[in-house]
Write a structure and sequence with these properties.
Layout: E1 22-23, E2 37-43, E3 49-50, E4 59-66, E5 69-73, E6 76-80, E7 84-88, E8 95-98, E9 103-109, E10 121-124, H1 127-138, H2 148-160, E11 164-166, E12 170-172, H3 177-188, H4 196-202, H5 207-218, H6 222-239, H7 244-250, H8 256-267, H9 271-281
Helix pairs in contact: 1-2, 4-5, 7-8
Length: 288
């Protein structure tokens, strides 16, 4: 895989003090295939190797079929639960961490033909798009430029630009070293229930200064930012099969009902209802 930091983006991103993301599948270099759109199916094991930050000349759509995906890119982290997708435009440094024994589809799109957003985002994809992605992955990546496979790719491109976006699975992370350290600590130990005053003291700051810093750098109050982090972790673990009780304990809640209350306050519905409605919204049909 070609490692190519892009000077258009913050160079401090490559030094962000975040947990190392791991890779447990053979990476693909999409730039070696001279086609406007290609699709690959990748299945993971439990043997993890380091995945460095990298970029492609082509944009990348990461689709979770079984298991969750965490995508790291400038400005934050994206959690992609099963049947969701994250779009990473061409040239953006990123890395993807897939759950053990997961299955993902990666779709690479030439920027000259892509009409997708110029920034990273999460897409709500339909059953038709999922089937097109699967079908395209069955064919060799160097398919004829004219013919059924090429037409299939053009249909997929037309469908993708119509997909809606959401920021529900996005956690903004600042380039500020103190907030990077805090994000790393909370991702490693999401059950840390330290108060904002206690966290401010860790970084030799007053509570008010720390609170202003978080708002300035993330656009959220600290309370909302930590809740978003907890929601992302909860979604990742719930979609991987963990129970509400287990997730609530992992996040430091004394009872499952307290966690459910937080989830409902933030997302407008219970964890189970949110997952069920999301599944119905995208006509849940797992990729083969």
């Amino acid at each position: 895989m070609r490692i190519a930091p892009d000077p258009k983006y913050d160079p401090d991103f490559a030094r962000m003090d975040l947990p190392d993301l791991r890779i447990n599948y053979d990476p693909v270099d999409p730039d070696q295939f001279d086609r406007p759109i290609t699709s690959f199916c990748l299945e993971t094991s439990e043997d993890n190797d380091d995945l460095p930050l990298h970029s492609h000349r082509k944009g990348q759509l990461v689709v979770a079929s079984h298991g969750s995906v965490m995508c790291r890119a400038p400005g934050g982290l994206w959690i992609v639960p099963p049947q969701g997708a994250v779009w990473i435009p061409a040239g953006i440094l990123h890395s993807n961490c897939v759950a053990d024994f997961g299955r993902i589809y990666t779709v690479f799109i030439d920027p000259q033909v892509s009409m997708l957003p110029r920034t990273c985002c999460t897409l709500m994809i339909t059953s038709l798009v999922r089937e097109l992605i699967h079908r395209l992955s069955v064919f060799p990546p160097l398919y004829p430029l004219e013919g059924p496979t090429s037409r299939l790719g053009r249909v997929l491109l037309d469908e993708l630009v119509q997909m809606s976006t959401t920021d529900e699975m996005y956690l903004p992370i600042s380039a500020d070293s103190r907030l990077q350290h805090l994000a790393a600590a909370l991702l490693q130990n999401p059950g840390d229930r330290s108060t904002i005053g206690e966290l401010a003291a860790r970084y030799a700051m007053s509570e008010s200064t720390f609170a202003r810093l978080v708002v300035k750098e993330t656009g959220m109050t600290f309370g909302r930012w930590r809740q978003r982090l907890q929601i992302l972790i909860a979604m990742q673990r719930l979609t991987a099969g963990s129970s509400v009780q287990t997730v609530s304990l992992d996040l430091g809640y004394e009872t499952p009902s307290a966690f459910i209350t937080m989830f409902k306050k933030t997302m407008g519905k219970s964890p189970r209802r949110f997952l069920a409605e999301r599944a119905r919204l995208i006509n849940l049909e797992t990729l083969p």
